[in-house]
């Protein structure tokens, strides 16, 4: 909403739908407050009672849902912890990401089919995690859908490089928007093999900086807030990123809390504090969410000033490019059609793509180091197989897929099955009946 308020290129009619109508009403009130004080083209907001009504004839669709509640997410984190399986986030891979995907795939599939009925020509942006699986679900249920997955994690390395460029220039001339990177990987486990700022190659300097700070780490000053508890549970010192560069020879682009979950727990999650990050407890998420909702309700009633400012997100720029035809390059999640060598066609991968009046064209990004490719291929194939199993209600492969994740595979088979069964039971009310019964 803040991005639309400061943008002078989009005069949007924004339709809001939520299964909790009161939340959509509240957000419409906030959006229209932004519009009233807008410096831009004054996007207007209205809430709708049905998904079909909101979607009918839409040009752009943005999907951002929570598949379940924070209590459900608590089960995703706390049950594996009893088996000695730690997770820093638990929404992408690992046992938490697996369960979240099983809950969310049917929800996203329903939305994808509604888009097919009501706005088949729309461009569709998915913001929901697990990003790869759910973006894949949209393409599975609606072949030909013009959908992409949007994630801001690559902003982290771009901000670091902008800081290096500013240090060189002895000024604050550069932001992350001036940093160009060539992205390769899958969502939340992304890497870059080219980095430049206004034509200058910054990869050598990044390597040098990483090596110099691989023991002490580095924290982005813009990520430091006045809330020490928030910074403790959501911050990092980039030590995992720097270590992965040493291991694989290619800079990691995502945040440490996500990167850590793609490798066996003994690497980073066994002692996360020594790697400069923390495991985020659900109780803190609940507390933080309650504070944010209270602030939103005050803003909707006009009892508090609007707190938004232009964000680090690229979504508004992507939409403008699609609507205006003015090209814009951004990292996105799309089916692989050859942009990453060595991964199967159709695999949801994260690379750069060109947004323009011709749509979204992925950019050929090249290849990954062999050892890194094997890790990514393992996760990507598991995500593809999980998606297929849930969409076809094929329960047979689910336990084996679950047990094959790097955070789980060290467990004896009986323990892995017990963990799977307990996690399914904890959120069975949100799972397809066939899956819940089979567990």
Instruction: Give the biggest beta sheet.
Output: 3 strands, parallel
* Radius of gyration, in angstroms, nearest whole number: 21 Å
Secondary-structure element order, as H and E? HEHEHEHHEHEHEEEHHHHHHEEEHHHH
Query: Mean of the pLDDT scores?
Result: 95
Widest beta sheet: strand line-up: 3-4-5
Report the portion of residues in β strands: 5-15%
Kindly name the structural category: alpha/beta
How many beta-strand segments? Answer: 11
* Overall geometric form: globular
Residue ranges: pLDDT <50 for 5 or more in a row? none
Helical stretch count?
Answer: 17
Q: Helical amount among residues, as a percent range? A: 40-55%
Euclidean distance between termini CA atoms: 42 Å
Pfam family, one: Glyco_hydro_4C
Domain Glycosyl hydrolase family 4 C-terminal: 183-408
Family: Belongs to the glycosyl hydrolase 4 family.
InterPro entries: GH4_Enzyme_sf, Glyco_hydro_4, Glyco_hydro_4_C, Lactate_DH/Glyco_Ohase_4_C, NAD(P)-bd_dom_sf
Write a structural description.
By secondary structure, the chain is α/β, with parallel strands linked by helices. The chain has a domain at 155-280. It is built from 17 helices and eleven strands. The chain has helices spanning 2-6, 21-36, 51-55, 70-82, 94-118, 131-141, 155-169, 203-212, 228-234, 239-248, 256-259, 282-300, 315-324, 370-391, 398-403, 413-426, 433-438; strands at residues 13-16, 44-47, 60-63, 123-126, 146-149, 179-186, 189-197, 200-201, 328-335, 348-356, 359-362. Strands 3-4-5 form a three-stranded parallel sheet, sandwiched between helices. A three-stranded antiparallel sheet has the order 6-7-8. It has a three-stranded antiparallel sheet with strand order 9-10-11. The longest helix has 25 residues, at 94-118. The protein is globular. The relative contact order is 0.14.
